[in-house]
Amino acid sequence: MAAGAVRTEARVRAVDPGDLDGDPGLDALGVPTRPLAAVDVSRPQPEAVVRRAAAVAARSAQLLVGVAAGAPHPSLAPLLPELVCTLVGGPGPHPAACVPFHDPEAALAGLTAAVAVAPRAATTLGRLLRLTAALPVPDALVAESLAYSMLLAGPEFAAWRATRPQRATAPPDEPPVLTERRGDILTVTLDRPARHNAYGTALRDLLVEALELAEADPTVLRVELSGRGPTFCSGGDLDEFGTAPDVAAAHLVRLERSAGALLHRLAPRVHAVVHGTCIGAGVELPAFAGEVLARPGTTFRLPELAMGLVPGAGGTVSLPRRIGRWRTAWLALSGQPVDLTTALEWGLVDGRVG
After folding, report:
1. I need a surface site. Which of 75, 125, 302, 319 has the fewest CB within 10 A?
2. Do 75 and 176 fall into the same domain?
3. The pTM is what?
């Protein structure tokens, strides 16, 4: 099984676990010169070497990615959880820390190229995922927002923003979120189909209002979340990215108007149905729900690294709790899509519908 399409790049040499130093090699401007290192986990290693390598990986600022043409050697089992992720080949089942591919070396080359585009954001993401996996959800959302806000003010995001014409945004003609109460069920429908339900400020605020209504009313026993049009949600509205004049204030607003926090608190009552190309917030938000169903042909992708950012709608919190931080790292670092079959195998969604 392949987790998604990968770029074809020059092969990357993997080092032995005993040669790891975990040093990203910061230059004079603080830019990592060696943001990623590949680790050969295919060959047996002495216990002492594995133990030392695991200790290095646990504190590393460098992204340490395992690679094996087949299954990792059993002697490396204590190291795998400490790596960012491990790219493997061959038939499964594989440990949760592993991402399977037909050609793990090609996947590694594509991952290396993606990280090279935004090394600051990539190394930030690696450490953030370790932190958010260990924190309670409210605190993890604070950590994610702080990292996101920092990167919004950084040069990698500025470089991405400069490549895209920024159009003026106008308020939607119609409310971008529809709510309807039927008995003890509240249906919440993202309704900005012409923009593929892009997660802009107006849509976010109405979604938060709908979820606050459900939280305040214990007679709402079920919240049904879906989207109208060709896509459940195509992620953040790119025309709004970087428009906040004050990233510190934007951080506070992000926490105050957090649909992710509300979905987490309401999770046992929330049933999400997704479809189409779910990108960014379109993956991050439904992953908080107690049940996620997907229609045939649905795909999932986290594109933020290519913009010099990390996920900012709660994805570094919601996805690790569904699929583990290792597969979350692969999605967020590579920017590659996963199909519905893979999403079901990983537990990103709970079932098919339609």
Report:
1. 75
2. no
3. 0.93
